[in-house]
Amino acid sequence: MKKTILIVLAVVFLSIGAGAKVYDATGFGIRPDGITLNTRSIQSAIDLISSRGGGVLEFPAGKYLSGSIFLKTGVEVRLLEGAVLLGSTNPYDYESVENNYGFILSKDQKDISVTGKGTIDGQGFTLATNFVIQVHMGVREDALRHDRTSSRPKLFYLRECDGILIDGVKLKDAGEWTLVCDQCEHLTISGIDMDSKNYWNNDGIDIVDCRHVLIKDSHIDASDDALCLKSHSKDHLCEDIEIRNCRARSSASAIKFGTVSRGGFKDIRIINNRVYDTYRSAITIASVDGAEIENVVVDSLYATNTGNAIFLRTGERWHGGKRGYLRNILISNVRVEVPATKADAGYSYEGPIEDLPRNISPAGIVGIPEIPIENVTLRNVEIVYPGGGDSGYAFRGTTPEELESVPEMKDYYPEFSQFKELPAWGLYIRHAKGITLEGVRLVAAIEDYRPAIVTDDVSKLKIKDISIVEPSNGKKKEIIKYKTK
Predict the structure, then answer these.
(1) What pLDDT is stored for residue 1 in this prediction?
(2) Containing H/E element for 313?
(3) Contact yes or no for 199/227 (Cβ under 8 A)
(4) Mean pLDDT value across residues 417-431
(5) Is residue 213 within 8 Å of residue 165, measured between CB atoms?
């Protein structure tokens, strides 16, 4: 994000907070007992403050039970330390925006904010359980099946809003996705602490077709994708977005573009972030639904105990006749440690055991013939693997016939493990052009039957200062280039 935009946005919010009138929530009959349903009282307070030109609705310490709340223009909801905004566990206490049910909702509003040292607790496990009970009673349908009802409320769903600040608060236990901003502009998420891993599909932060976004200094612990950029509309895109100084853990992917990827992702910066105990990839960038992805910088990413390092992918899943692209990607100053064991073992909702048999998967830059991945640079990247790939458990060789046998899977959901066994232990590149590997270091703790790097149908490949460390007898060729220039 351009510095001028960030400075202007910060000044706007500082001026709102400094000069705004502060209203004590309890003065509106809002009770902090954790029992009284305060939905109407809280909404009346927000509506009144907005009608008077804006201000701060301040919640002192206590527990405030409520159903859906709609944020309105010019209103800041401030949760003081010890204040807990509790989501009702009754499914009928929730409303929707654009068919998205949620606890904190807003549409087409300006200059809205949620701040403070308090907590927003969706009580999502109990809420989701109550939805499932209704499914089993025949009252509700379960379109997603397997007790993952699609109408569960998100903790936040903000749509087409301009000027959003979410700062300092703790977010926990969403009914479904946790914090969703859809087609919004001028958004800052700062200093939040999120713990949302108590049910299926608990995404962390979902930025959907938004522009001018800064996410910084936050901790995200989610059972599904933690920091996720999505593009649901072919007519919109995610643009001018920066994710900086965050920590993320997920039983899916930590930082992800997609999976729904219809419009595009442009001018994205992911700087100085940490990933841990993550089941899938530290970073996934996928264009499988027609998205145009370009000008992405990932710098200073450090990941420990993560199932996969990097996965770049194109495909043709829900493209609707629109052919996207993935190009101009710089990934630099990255270190990832991949374990031999399941990285999210022991968490509440682990990622599924799937796509077996396969040995530990390599990082991947995997296009399709119709949409090759273009102009990707990996610079100063170190990936440490456990090694130990066993040809008796799963095997993929490097003869032309064996390399050609790797399935294309153009219309599949994109995951690094979808191909099952791949012919490299460190890095696999297929259907790509303009790939630069500079200062890349691949380390295997013990010997693997596969070579470190395999390229297939790659043009304009540049390799400089590659380091491959693997205990072996020295006879194995570590770089295999097939149909590569």
Answers:
(1) 39
(2) strand 292-314
(3) no
(4) 97
(5) no
pLDDT of 485 over the 70 cut: yes
Q: What are the CB-based long-range contacts (under 8 Å, 24+) for 44-49?
A: 46/70, 46/71, 46/72, 46/75, 46/77, 47/72, 49/21, 49/23, 49/74, 49/75
* Alpha-carbon torsion (121, 122, 125, 126), positive or negative: positive
Q: In 49-92, where do the E strands start and end?
A: 55-59, 62-66, 69-70, 75-79, 83-87
Which residues, 6 or more positions from 386, have their beta carbon under 8 angstroms from its beta carbon? Answer: 338, 339, 340, 360, 444, 445, 446
Res 475: pLDDT: 82
Q: Please, how many CA atoms are within 13 Å of residue 149, restricted to the half-sphere of its CB?
A: 23
Cα torsion angle, 373, 379, 383, 389, sign: positive
| Strand ranges, E, within 146-204 | 154-159, 162-167, 170-172, 179-182, 185-190, 193-196
What residues form DSSP beta bridges with 458?
432, 484
Q: What is the DSSP letter of 125?
A: H
- 434-463: b or e for each residue (b if 16 or more CB lie within 10 Å)? bbbbeebbbbbeeebbbbbbbbbbbeebee
With a cut of 70, say whether residue 430 has pLDDT above it: yes
Residue showing tokens 């998100």: 154
Cβ–Cβ under 8 Å, residues 314 and 371: yes
Please provide the average confidence, as pLDDT, over all residues in the chain.
94
Classify the C-alpha dihedral 412-394-342-340 as positive or negative.
Answer: negative
Length of the chain: 485
What pLDDT score was predicted for residue 9? Answer: 46
Indicate the residue type of 369.
P
Q: Nearest to residue 356, comparing CAs of 306, 400, 390, 405?
A: 390
What percent helix, strand, coil does the chain show, rounded to 5? 10, 50, 40
CA–CA distance from 480 to each of 372, 407, 427, 484 (Å)? Answer: 19, 18, 11, 9
- Do β-strands 325-337 and 22-24 pair in parallel, antiparallel, or remain unpaired? unpaired
Q: How much is the average pLDDT of 194-201?
A: 95
* Contact yes or no for 277/248 (Cβ under 8 A): no
Task: List the structure tokens of 340.
Answer: 């031999």
Helix residue ranges per DSSP H, 20-153: 39-51, 124-137
Integer angstrom CA distances of residue 329 from 166, 215, 257, 325, 420: 29, 20, 13, 12, 25
Q: Are 223 and 202 in contact (CB under 8 A)?
A: yes
The span from the CA of 42 to the CA of 310, in Å, is 45
Can you give the pTM of this predicted structure? 0.95
